[in-house]
Automatic annotation (TrEMBL):
GO terms for molecular function: lyase activity. This is Hydroxymethylglutaryl-CoA lyase. It comes from the Bacteria. The lineage of its organism: Bacteria, Pseudomonadati, Pseudomonadota, Betaproteobacteria, Burkholderiales. InterPro entries: Aldolase_TIM (IPR013785), HMGL (IPR043594), PYR_CT (IPR000891). Keywords: Lyase, Metal-binding. Residues 6-273 form the Pyruvate carboxyltransferase domain. PROSITE patterns: PYR_CT. Belongs to the HMG-CoA lyase family. CDD domains: DRE_TIM_HMGL.
Amino acid sequence: SSKQAVRIVEVGPRDGLQNEKQSVPTDVKLELIARLADAGLRDIEATAFVSPKWVPQMADHADLMRRLPRRAGVGYPVLVPNLKGLEAAIESGASEVAVFAAASEAFSQKNINCSVAESLVRFEPVMAAARAAHVKVRGYVSCVVACPYEGPVAPQRVADVAARLHAMGCYEVSLGDTIGVGTPATVRAMLQAVASRVPVSQLAGHYHDTWGMAVANVAASYDLGVRVFDASVSGLGGCPYAKGASGNVATEDVVYLLHGLGADTGVDLGRLVDTSAWISGVLGREVGSKVARALRAA
Ligand code: HMG
Ligand code: MG
């Protein structure tokens, strides 16, 4: 068919749960991941090989990776901040990882305890070791619209960091509106700057929904040719080093939007909504997706 294929990277088990205050058992995470795969998601960011002192919720990373349901066609990328993280990830069976940088100095310091330039230097040996192990590396840029500490971030700064990640070998660069303040106007300006340096086919949109603009920002990005979006089931999450930031755009909302625009995501919306209701129940909260609520009421 002529349907546009869109790849959704489900980040709920990582971005969604990293900031969760209550302890989430590894068994619950594994069941969440299995249900997401059953719903048709093919890229599920499973965990982060970061310091357990910094992000206690991801401390079970090695155990979780070893117990993941291995399925044909389903990839489980994990975050790695440095060589130590990469080595631990590979040791646990990871075949895809993501490095994460920022377009803002203050956020880089708070999140990974080094400057933007230092982080890029730190990623070089990570890239080399990953290449040697045939591990795919994705790159993230945080604060692509604004920083919680510095305010607005110039699109050119985002383009500079994205171009560096791409040049060092990241197969895709995911653009994070970490605090979810972007609108289609600011996201478009940012994307146009980045797309002049990195092919749009190698960009992904990673939009948090703090101000309720994330679905609009996905639509605007889709219009500009972006065909990969990160999303979190039920809109779970927030970044521990971005105060007040809420979760990613809900995967259900992105799937409904994209199917409405005539795109193909491979995701079964009904099964995804069931998963959203299930994890919300386990965590003891309301479903964070309007589409999920509407479908369940219908
Ligand atoms: P540091 O303290 O500067 O690290 O932290 P260090 O190299 O000086 O080491 C200090 C200690 O940490 C040592 O242990 C190391 O072994 C250990 P000690 O000797 O004290 O016992 N260590 C590690 N342990 C486990 N795994 C590792 C690791 N590395 C060192 N990989 C570091 C620097 C980067 C490690 C730390 O700042 C960190 O882990 N930060 C992670 C923060 C994080 O996970 N943030 C959330 C993810 S990013 C995000 O959410 C944004 C995104 O969604 C996009 C968007 O929305 O914008 C991706
Ligand atoms: Mg994020």
